[in-house]
Amino acid sequence: MAIMEDLDISTYRVVSNDEEQYSIWPADRDVPGGWRDVGVIGSKAECLSHIEKVWTDMRPASLRRLMKS
């Protein structure tokens, strides 16, 4: 599988939903409903690296808010 990833020359964008969960999406496609573009575009590895840096708490935002109460 790593060989196929090495050959992937596609461009992706980082997207996030209302629960502050992250994903990548092909840059040449419209962002799906319920998701928003966070402004990071690059290779799959670059996008996943960004997500790794910013998505430090995997719990949905609604659960984090509930746990603070």
TrEMBL record:
What's the domain of life for this entry?
Answer: Bacteria
Q: Which Pfam families match?
A: MbtH (PF03621)
MbtH-like domain ranges (all copies): 5-53
Q: Which SUPFAM superfamilies match?
A: MbtH-like
Query: Which residues lie in coiled coils?
Result: none
Per its UniProt record, what Gene3D superfamilies does this chain match? Structural Genomics, Unknown Function 30-nov-00 1gh9 Mol_id
Which PANTHER family does the record associate with it? ENTEROBACTIN BIOSYNTHESIS PROTEIN YBDZ (PTHR38444)
What name does this protein carry? MbtH family NRPS accessory protein
**Species:** Pendulispora albinea
